[in-house]
């Protein structure tokens, strides 16, 4: 048995592109060791791949670990049969095939306002409920075999404990058949969406509850969605808004009241502590930069250099970066568009800058939306893979128009999952007080910078209206 001094906990981030592991000191949160393994680059994935990534990422790292918490990409549909075997590959949050199912379900159940009131959110193709409708319509024989539906983090937690499947309020709130305000499932919505079928759902645990133990006795916490885990790691409070730039771009803050945005821009999720997590999500974030770097045949560091060499406004180029369709605004079939090309501005520098500005403009619209829904935006905490980009760090304060900080160390999702594990281990009413982050404060927007940012945003919004009428 470890002495209290050296108790270790592990946090897992099983997100879209990879699994990351952070092993932390349970009392202070100090990171002791870490690991990582990649996921397939597809929008449907056999959960077995997450399990092998978990094993690879944790290989040799879990010795002496007393508790594990798993945070996962939200919304993914994992379907199991009577034997606990996977019925079909999981459909991920960024798979847009269920866009029509989302529109149909929205109309069938009384429209956007009725949905926002019932489950806090208006479903788009990302939500689990729409994927179940898609399966009921397109794969009815497979749907008939579904005995149970889980989310990615639920499935991994279940693999670890081997016990009854469980989830938490945060991740359940992204299904479309759970009411965060009422803290209960809506089986009526699930059954109607799934063509009259009644699959079992995981039990929703309290934030500090234990899901069970691994065969070798390690405690496993309830786990949660990746954005909820990041909020737990960063301990965000009034005035803090997180902008995460991973595969998805997310904007979120914490709130004591349940949001219900009938426009569907802000999802009314629950957090991992018992409160709410109003969140806006775009489908195109870090990969806009990797795709642009690929097109220019340069590495990400060179993309940064090019973007920083261009002037604000990219010489008049505007990129609507809807490369994988888009979720906010809800344009699942959209493609990207580039505006304002002239012989004089068609340079790699301007294209790189337009990519950074275009990605950030989508998040700035999310910032406006959460502000409209009662979140006080005093500063932005910038996280996720693309928060490491120098050009993103330079442009974000201009486009967002508020002070921006980059909290260190990175990998906040895995750290939040580790903190939840430490909380379950301690059994205390509040999560353990960890040492917190050091934060790199970026340049605040000057008056001139804020004006430039407003102009960039205006051109972005005009381009969007022109092509997509939203
Ligand atoms: N310095 C950088 N500049 C731009 N993008 C970066 C940089 N470092 C990492 N990324 C991008 O961040 C993404 C991974 O971020 P992450 O938050 O781990 O994603 P996810 O949680 O969706 O799996 C990748 O697309 C990667 O290319
Ligand atoms: O769908 C959402 C939020 O509603 C996404 O934020 C997913 O949770 C995936 O996160 P990343 O893997 O992009 O971090």
From TrEMBL:
Residues 445-470 are annotated as: Disordered. It comes from the Bacteria. The active site is at residue 226. GO terms for biological process: D-xylose metabolic process; xylulose catabolic process. It is an enzyme of class 2 (transferase). InterPro entries: ATPase_NBD, Carb_kinase_FGGY, Carb_kinase_FGGY_CS, FGGY_C, FGGY_Carb_Kinase, FGGY_N, Xylulokinase. It holds the Pfam family FGGY_N. Residues 242-425 form the Carbohydrate kinase FGGY C-terminal domain. Its EC number is 2.7.1.17. Residues 452-470 have a biased composition (Basic and acidic residues). One of its GO terms (molecular function) is D-xylulokinase activity. Belongs to the FGGY kinase family. PANTHER family: SUGAR KINASE, XYLULOSE KINASE. This is Xylulose kinase. It comes from Prauserella shujinwangii.
């Amino acid at each position: 048995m470890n002495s209290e001094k050296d108790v270790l906990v592990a946090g897992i981030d099983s997100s879209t592109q990879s699994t990351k592991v952070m092993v932390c000191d349970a009392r202070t949160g100090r990171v002791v060791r870490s690991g990582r393994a990649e996921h397939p680059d597809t929008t449907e994935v056999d959960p077995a791949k997450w399990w092998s990534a978990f094993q690879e990422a944790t290989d040799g790292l879990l010795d002496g670990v007393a508790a594990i918490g798993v945070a996962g990409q939200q919304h993914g549909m994992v379907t199991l049969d009577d034997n606990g075997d996977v019925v079909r590959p999981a459909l991920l949050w960024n798979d847009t095939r269920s866009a029509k199912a989302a529109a149909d379900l929205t109309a069938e159940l009384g429209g956007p306002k009725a949905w926002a009131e019932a489950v806090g959110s208006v479903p788009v193709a990302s939500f689990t409920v729409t994927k179940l409708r898609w399966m009921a319509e397109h794969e009815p024989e497979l749907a008939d075999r579904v005995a149970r539906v889980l989310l990615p983090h639920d499935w991994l937690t279940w693999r670890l404990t081997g016990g009854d499947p469980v989830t938490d309020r945060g991740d359940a709130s992204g299904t479309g058949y759970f009411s965060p305000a009422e803290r209960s499932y809506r089986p009526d919505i699930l059954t109607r969406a799934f063509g009259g079928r009644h699959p079992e759902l995981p039990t929703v645990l309290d934030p500090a509850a234990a899901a069970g133990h691994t065969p070798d006795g390690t405690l496993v916490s309830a786990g949660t969605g990746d954005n909820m885990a990041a909020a737990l790691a960063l301990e965000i409070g009034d005035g803090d808004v997180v902008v995460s730039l991973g595969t998805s771009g997310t904007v979120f803050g914490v709130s004591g009241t349940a949001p219900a945005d009938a426009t569907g821009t802000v999802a009314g999720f629950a957090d991992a502590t018992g409160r709410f997590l109003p969140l806006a999500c775009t489908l195109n974030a870090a990969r806009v930069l990797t795709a642009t770097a690929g097109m220019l045949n340069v590495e990400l560091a060179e993309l940064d250099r090019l973007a920083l060499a261009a002037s604000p406004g990219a010489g008049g180029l505007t990129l609507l970066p809807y490369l994988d369709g888009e979720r906010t605004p809800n344009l699942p079939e959209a493609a990207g568009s580039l505006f304002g090309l002239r012989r004089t501005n068609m340079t790699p520098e301007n294209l790189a800058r337009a990519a950074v500005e275009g990605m950030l403009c989508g998040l700035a619209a999310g910032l406006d939306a959460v502000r409209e829904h009662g979140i006080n935006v005093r500063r932005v905490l910038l996280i996720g893979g693309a928060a490491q980009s120098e050009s993103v760090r330079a442009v974000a304060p201009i486009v967002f128009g508020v002070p921006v900080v980059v909290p260190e160390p990175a990998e906040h999702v895995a750290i939040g999952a580790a903190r939840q594990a430490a909380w379950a281990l301690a059994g205390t009413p509040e999560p353990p007080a960890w040492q917190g982050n050091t934060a790199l404060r970026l340049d605040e927007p000057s008056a001139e910078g804020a004006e430039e940012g407003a102009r960039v945003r205006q051109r972005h919004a005009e381009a969007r209206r022109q092509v997509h009428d939203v």
